[in-house]
Amino acid sequence: MSAVAPATRGTAEKDPSVQDNKGHVPSPARHETPLQSILARIVHVERNEIAALLLSFAYFFLVLAAYYIIRPVRDEMGVAVGRDHLQTLFVIVFFVMLAAVPVYGWVTSRFAKRLVVPLVYSFFILNLIAFWTILSGGGRTASIASVFFVWASVFNLFVVSLFWIVMSDLYDSGQAKRLYGFIAAGGTAGAMAGPIITQGFVRIIGPDNLLLVSAALLTLALVAAMLLRRLAPAHGLAVASERPVGKGILAGAIRVWQSPYLFRIALWILLGNLVSTFFYLEQSHIVGETLTDRTARVELLARLDLAVSIMTILLQVFVTGRMLERFGVGVTAATLPAWCALGLVLLAISPTLGVIVAIMAVERAVAFALASPAVKVLYTVVDPEEKYKAQNFIDTVVYRGGDAASGWVFNTLGKTLGLAGGVVALTAVPAALAWLWLSFSLGNQLKERTASAGQNR
């Protein structure tokens, strides 16, 4: 392509020596590539940030595609072990998370930041290969299925959490405001690609071999992360200190307990997982009773993931920003508990496969596209130490604590007290209503904190 546009297109080069009628020297014309022109219509990105932005997009795409390939496999194993045992597994996941977070903190406190991603991701890649070796060798037992379910439930939190830690290490707050939306869309695209890959290959290579596909994508994500950190200084990103950093879980827990604001956020997460996990347990029970073929179950769960991803990206593009701006954080966060309260009533009336699939599809899409971004906004008015310590505690231990509590509570109601599934669903309605009230309460507290911060400037 010629460096000078043809005169017939009316874009002749301006002579810098010629002044305009106000005495200013015009800036030289800047030519945009087609890629730059397209990106400029979608996201406010500087020219020197484009390469880093696309690498970040690809990184998140690969991470979530890797997880969403094995998610239906995990969920099918959850169906295979049965609802009763699944409730026990959620308790085990909670205690494994309690043990894993301090180990992760030890890694970050002992190794340079550039080594954390390779160490953690390599560990998970080797885990995937080990599971594939066992399963392909005929070692698929109830115990192995349980171990894989627990492992996958820990895996997804850590790989995504580590991705956002890398992002916060590379982008400053101004860049994050401009670029995070586009980067997050990479994750949504990956969440869509994973189920498509699963549905396309599960009957060709079998469910077990999907683990190798996931391992390959996670390896590519590791390459993208390392390349991004290496090229960051040349693409407008300021890499923070490479010194090891410790993140003690006890400090985060203390902060949450001491701050009424953070405590309410933690309670919001806890109640949300309590209700959402009930839906997940019912999904496993109903799917297991309705579909007896393992491959058919994987296909259904993969289609569910795909539907959720499509709804999520549509909401993210057309609804999320407008809703947050017009109605605020409280109302936006409240959409999730409001739908879940309705879903509990619907499930009590008709506990069928079609009803639970519809409830789960909308619940997950609303959670990812509306409620989760709204809750993340709540952390913008807390100090840095609370962001890095308390938020880490809430996103891991409190999050999985909701899973464990749900399994214990609903197992007690269903088995010990002998309540039917529809009645158990109705007993969860008060928790959903308390969750709904917390949404509006947190929205009001955010307004007060924002106003107070503005007055103190």
Written overview of the protein:
By secondary structure, this protein is mainly alpha-helical. The chain folds into 2 domains: 42-238, Growth Hormone, Chain: A (Up-down Bundle); 248-450, MFS general substrate transporter like domains (Growth Hormone, Chain: A, Up-down Bundle). Helices cover 80% and strands 0% of the residues. It has 14 helices and no strands. It has helices at 34-42, 50-81, 83-110, 113-136, 142-170, 173-205, 210-231, 249-258, 260-290, 294-349, 353-378, 384-416, 421-427, 429-455. The protein starts with 33 loop residues before the first helix and ends with a helix. Residues 1-29 have low confidence and may be disordered.
Q: From the alpha-carbon coordinates, what is the Rg to the nearest angstrom?
A: 24 Å
| Averaged pLDDT | 77
Rough outline? globular
| Number of H- or I-type helical stretches | 14
What is the third-level CATH name, the topology of the largest domain? Answer: Growth Hormone, Chain: A
Pick out the low-confidence regions: 1-29
Annotated CATH architecture of the largest domain: Up-down Bundle
Total domain modules:
2
CATH class categorisation of the largest domain: Mainly Alpha
Fraction of residues in H or I helices: over 70%
Strand-and-helix sequence, N→C? HHHHHHHHHHHHHH
N-to-C CA distance: 52 Å
